[in-house]
Amino acid sequence: MSSRTSWRARAGTSLLAVLAGVGAFTAPAPAQADPRPEGTQSVSYHGYRIEVPAGWRTVDLTENPRACLRFDRPTVYLGEPAEQSDCPAGVVGRTAGIVVEPITARSSGRATAATARTQRGKAVAPSAVSGDGTIQIAVEDAGVLVTAAHTPETEDLVRGVLASAELTGDAERTALTTAARRAGAAPLAAAGPQPGTYTGKGFDACTAPSQAAMNAWQASSPYSAVGVYISGSFRGCAQPNLTASWVTSQTGNGWHLIPIDVGRQAPCTNYSLKMSTDPATAKAQGVTAAAGAITAASNLGIPAGSAVYSDIEAYTSTASCKAAVLSYLSGWTERLHAGGYLSGFYSSAASGIKDAASEYGNPAYTRVDHLFYAWWNGAADTNTGSYVPSSYWSDHQRIHQYAGEVTETWGGYSINIDRDYLDVGNGSTPAPSCSGANLDFTAYPTVRSGSTGNQVKAAQCLLKAAGFDPGAPDGIFGPDTTAAARNFQAAKGLSADGVVGAKTWTALLSRGSTPTVQNGSTGEAVTRLQRALTAALGRTVAVDGVFGQGTAQAARDYQSSRGLAADGIVGPATWGALQSGK
């Protein structure tokens, strides 16, 4: 049995669907490549011509329709990508690449609000923006959609190539349809938060499989979950199939999705895209990555409450490298929480996952919600061996990648995959991230219309995080705060009077995940518990994130007064009572 713990970054540019429906289209013209002696080559397709470095590959998808659109080596791909391509699982990272394809109903479905359009008679869009390592331009006078993948280091090079574009005599116009979905059409969205509640086998591959392959595998394979690379500027493969429609279809058919972001890597690696060694900068980079992941998830119809997994490849850990990774993940987690998403972390069990576990209770870092770990030991389970204590991330918060880079065939469709085993649950909405608002008080007094101060600001922040918007937390208890409090109370079955008293405070402060905690436990869940017990009991319980004797006694007192088993162990029953405002 293998003890290999690393895998390779893969997935593709974020060609997300928000548009649909195009009329008739012209057939694509043959691709042409004309080498130039001055170190560039002229590449033409469908009346669109660009100058690219002589060392770049050119792949004609008409001649090789199942070619993998991979960006780990500079390449221009010309033509319409096949629905099912031959992508290896071991594609590593990204350099640069350009896809020039005809505008069709399918390609229009991958355009986004950020897709630039050239003016009539032009092949260049000077103001085209880059999002998530991708620049996309609709050159309608040539009838092509151009998608350019890059890293921060290669963006200028790629923009130079795009700036060289011109129309040729073969150009024929096809407009990109941007009309909204038909009135009355059902919105495209996942069936619920992803990956949802599921225990069993899954897989991840370089690029999202075709609908036909997904249907065949659903009918005949042992898998019911699939990893999809939705965001990140260091993904290695394009995603011609990954659209909101694809997401809706898969989840509607019973598939569970594992949304993955492949962004900056540990600073102690040789990857070209790395996070900063300065913890504060690394944390800010994590925030930026999470913001991009939220946008991508939203465009794909993957809703709040879903977990999104940051892929940080294996590294040889040092103290500074570990600090950078965990700082990046803190920013990643806090920003996802602010957007209503759960945070996940993929890495090698022997490096990133081990480092995260070693600081599980350290309040200097914000702990991720879910683990996705590579340990290629062939065991389809969620055992973490010596890498992570069994009590950590133990509440349906684990995915084990137990084998890698294997080709399987089901229903006539072959895909190179990594094998995963999941034990995941929807959990609760992420614990609130209340930047600028203090939540730690020695008492939580009743606040109502007309009240002011820091406790009001805390209540407003908690209400907003719970999905009941009181407006900007300003410390003034006005009509909007009263309405938000009433709506929250009604949702919890409390007296909907708009007054935030002990029961409402208890329900607000205890919101979040519900892991079993007891004497010796540490971390964010313990902090929430201590706040909630302070409100529920009407006495001060030290809020330090450490479950000591004082917290244990307060838990027993609460349990006894609410008719629960008074063992001082806070499990589902105690959390349920707290979150109900009892």
UniProtKB/TrEMBL annotation:
Residues annotated as domain Rv2525c-like glycoside hydrolase-like: 215-421
Keyword Signal: yes
Domain Peptidoglycan binding-like, chain residue ranges per copy: 452-508, 522-578
Signal sequence range: 1-33
Keyword Secreted: no
Keywords assigned by UniProt, alphabetized: Signal
Superkingdom of origin: Bacteria
UniProt name for this protein: DUF1906 domain-containing protein
